[in-house]
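Hey team,

Filing this mostly as a record. A colleague (T.K.) asked me to run one chain through the structure pipeline before their review meeting, and I want the input and output archived in the tracker in case anyone asks later how it was produced. No errors, nothing strange. Just documentation.

Input sequence:
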Amino acid sequence: MNVSLPPFAETAPELFKQIAEQLSAEQLLWLSGYSYGLSVAKQAALLQVVSPQTSLPQNAPTQELSTNGLPTLTMLYGTHTGNSKRVALRTAERAQEQGFGVVLEDMRDYAPKRLKQERYVLLIVSTHGEGEPPMAAEDFYKYIHSPRAPKLVDTRFSVLALGDKSYLHFCKTGADMDAQLENLGAMRLVPRVDCDVDFDDDAERWITSVLKAAANTINENINKTINKTTNTANPAINLSITHIL
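Output structure:
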């Protein structure tokens, strides 16, 4: 079997081979899961992850722009099996590579009262059982559907919903959250994407499109500000700037 490996020290492939030859199929399966867990932990360490121990105060606003002028994106995931977290980590990593600020948080640990302070919110959430939110997302789900939920007219958002088409209520939690944020006045960056069990390709397309849309909002705001300023100073001048990403 020919396997393409990422860059390692020259001796690493031979070392892996020696270890694998000494393990049973069951031991290799355990090692695979253990290695994946280590990988996720290291990925999270590279990101600006808000953990339960370092959670922001309930009313603390997320920094609106990163140091290079791109938006700070608040990414919230609600997961039962870990797939939503996996996609959220991938999204956060890609966003930071492109220069966005990132706040990544489990819905379980997120203080919902902070929502009214957010300007860019990305939700990655699965559906559990017969159309129910995963346990980690229950409080967030109830809050946005309650009378306490704030108006979100200054918030832009998008939802990636994970589910299983073999169930009747496919991606219902994501669809419910998507509709409710719109009801609260938030504006979509890109339409919701519903993913079946083979979600990698659909998730990748969503990541690409939502990051492009978030970057474009900054250009739109710059154009509006410049046009407003120019037209106020000299109504005869109509200045428009096109920024090509």
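Quick notes for T.K.: The longest strand covers residues 72-78. Residues 1-5, 45-61, 235-245 have pLDDT under 50 and may be disordered.
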